Amino acid sequence: MAIISGPGGVDLEAELAAVGVRFVFAPGDDAPEAVIAEVLGMDERQIRAVVVAEPPEPGAEHTGMGAWHVNAETEAHFVRSGRGIVQFVLPQGECTVEITAGDVMIVSGAEHRYRPLEPQEWVIRHSGPAEAQLGARETGRDAGSWPT
Fold first, then answer.
1. Most CB contacts within 10 A, which of 2, 9, 132, 141?
2. Rounded to whole angstroms, how far apart are CA atoms 8 and 98?
3. How distant, in Å, are the alpha carbons of 1, 37, 55, 63 from that of 58?
4. What is the pTM assigned to this prediction?
5. Pseudo-torsion of CA 111, 117, 123, 127, nearest 10°?
6. How large a percentage of the chain has pLDDT more than 90?
7. Cα angle at 9 between 7 and 89, to 5 degrees?
8. What is the pLDDT of residue 40?
9. Is 143 inside a domain boundary?
10. CATH number, domain at 129?
């Protein structure tokens, strides 16, 4: 189940929702169809990929998905196994979410970065036509350090 931490004195789930982020816990081996149907059109619900994200090598923690970025499409991903962290930019500062097996992560337009802490298997779905890629645009935000 996603563990959310961040700036004090704010409703972090509400602030995440305001920037386009939601987490749902759904134990099993895939996201519930009803959750996917809430955010993706009928022609977008297919699995685009099943990947295992490996922890980055030392010195590469801020490259690729570890760099602050915004994806071109709405994401609806399911974590099958492993542990990782995602950080999001909120008006009040950065918010960190620890994600593990059973978490469904829905992101639509939010600035974020991701770091697997151990090998983490993801079921990837996103908006756009079948040939669309989950393209990311790096924002140039200073990498800073990852939380420990």
1. 2
2. 17
3. 27, 38, 9, 11
4. 0.94
5. 10
6. 88
7. 30
8. 96
9. no
10. 2.60.120.10
pLDDT higher than threshold 80 for residue 31: yes
The answer to whether 129 and 97 have CB atoms below 8 angstroms apart is no
| Range list of H helices, 1-144 | 12-18, 33-39
Question: In which residue are the tokens 């915004």 written?
Answer: 70
* Alpha helices, DSSP H, located in 7-125: 12-18, 33-39
Q: What tokens does 86 get?
A: 């995602």
Position 148 pLDDT exceeds 80? no
The secondary structure of 104-137 as a DSSP string is: EEEESS--EEEEESS-EEEEE-BSS-TT----EE
Cβ atoms < 10 Å from Cβ of 18: 12
Q: Is residue 34 part of a domain?
A: yes
In a domain, 70, yes or no: yes
Q: Is residue 146 part of a domain?
A: no
